[in-house]
Design goal:
It is globular, with a radius of gyration of 16 Å. A five-stranded parallel β-sheet has the order 1-2-3-4-5, covered by helices on one side. The protein is an alpha/beta fold. Helix 2 runs parallel beside helix 3. Helix content is about 35%, strand content about 10%.
Length: about 160
């Protein structure tokens, strides 16, 4: 058996409630996921999964799923594990937390690809699609994108930043 890519959800919860996401509340206002799926995966369990997949030719690890990986404050440690096994680390995220020292630590840990899920061509469209409990963050996410692009360039990282 060959495993090229593994999608390993390291954090099941999310700080957004986007209308197109399984995390969002259903029509009755109930959470889209059962509380057992909202947990954080331990570093130990994560490494066991990566090591097992690496035995089968693993090349890429997505540290996402339906949950928001950046809610896991140990994210740089998870990225280091992926790097340790010679694999590429990929994250699709709403980007709310990807700034400052946390962002720099993720890039420095060896992050290879980061996609900001930034839906909408303007603030109104963004607010329609990407909903955070405390309101839209269009300007903040744009700043986070610019900050990350600048840091990747400044640090000489090969990380690809995408939207």
């Amino acid at each position: 058996m060959k495993i090229d890519r593994a999608v390993i959800e390291i954090n099941g919860g999310c700080n957004y409630s986007c209308q197109m996401c399984p995390q969002a509340k259903d029509a009755n206002g109930k959470p889209g996921r059962h509380k057992d799926f909202l947990k954080k995966m331990s570093l130990e369990d994560f490494e066991k999964n990566v090591a097992d997949c690496a035995k089968h030719g693993l090349r890429v690890v997505n540290l996402d799923g339906s949950g928001e990986a950046t809610l896991n404050r140990n994210l740089p440690e998870y990225i280091k594990i992926v790097t340790k096994y010679g694999c590429e680390s990929v994250i699709f995220s709403n980007g709310f937390n990807m700034s400052g020292q946390f962002m720099r630590d993720c890039v420095d840990a060896g992050l290879d690809f980061y996609r900001f899920s930034f839906i909408g061509s303007d603030e109104q469209d963004y607010s329609k699609w990407m909903y955070n409990a405390v309101g839209g963050h269009y300007a903040q996410i744009r700043r986070n994108i610019e900050e990350m692009v600048a840091y990747v360039k400044e640090s000489g990282s090969d990380c690809v930043v995408s939207t």
